[in-house]
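Feature request disguised as a bug report, sorry. It would help if multi-protein outputs had a clear separator. Right now it looks like this:
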Amino acid sequence: MSAAGRFALVIAFALATLPAHAAVLDENDASRLAAVNEAIKSFEDDVSAALHDLPSNEAEQIESYAYVELNLEAAHERLNTVFMLAAVSVYVESPSDQLLILNLMHGQLLPQSKSYLNEKRNAIASMAAAHPANQVLATYGTRAAALLGDRAIPLLDELYRRTGDPAP
């Protein structure tokens, strides 16, 4: 084989071992989203258990706990949508399909999801503030602020920054 042939073979081998483009999101991102989603689901389950333990003649408390549970369920579902698209973007093989998913996430899903999670966090905080004597609701407000405000929303912000220019 000539020197030019060997050189071409080395270049072809080097190009074949390089990814077509750097992945914007990876399995770690999907794992982090799954962990936050699991934490929200656990919180939702805790509220549901507390709700079922309330006496049936405590209509106002039942309504308050159900409101918190519904807001957590909505946040969980929204974050699950983000998780599914992030996971798909990791495994899709076509660069154009990956770009389409990342553009959808950046342009629509992530900003709307951040606003939505902020609304849910604020709704739970508002319910806690409306019942200052209820320590359980106060704890739910604090827990929602930590989980949604300190974990989920910053993660969405990070993903938003990283998906801002997904072109290879």
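(second protein starts here, but nothing in the output says so)
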Amino acid sequence: VFNKVESENTVSVKTIKVHMLIGKRIIKSYLRFEEDVPGEIVDLMGGFKKIRVTLAQTTNSRLVSDFRTSINQLSGEEWLSVHNGSQWIYLKGDQNGHGVIKRITVAISAPQASQLVYVNMKCNLTPSQLSQLINFAMHSEEGKKFLKEQVKD
């Protein structure tokens, strides 16, 4: 997404790879006890195989625009698209020939923090399981706050 020569002094990029052998247990425990998430949602975490999170910090509006264009050109079916002013979230899923989602891509722009977030997840979920996760997230306290802000704009 970022041309190294053009963005060398205007963007800071960090990538985190989540090791799922340990990560699944931590995530499931957190969701069960800290967030009081229903068991069927916690069990869906078992469908995730690999997660990589890339965080970029930049104040260069051209890079934000390039990031958004790149995300729109990624393969996969768009499952979620939420816009709140200059803040946006995209979620895309790639399915195999049997209708199983093998890859999920999430892109988030948080301009107030000058951040772009790109999450790439390998998984093994059905479309109905992905819909359950999206619906739960959008009806959680954070999801409700985001949706209320979106309605105001």
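Even a blank line would do. Unrelated, but nice: The radius of gyration is 16 Å.
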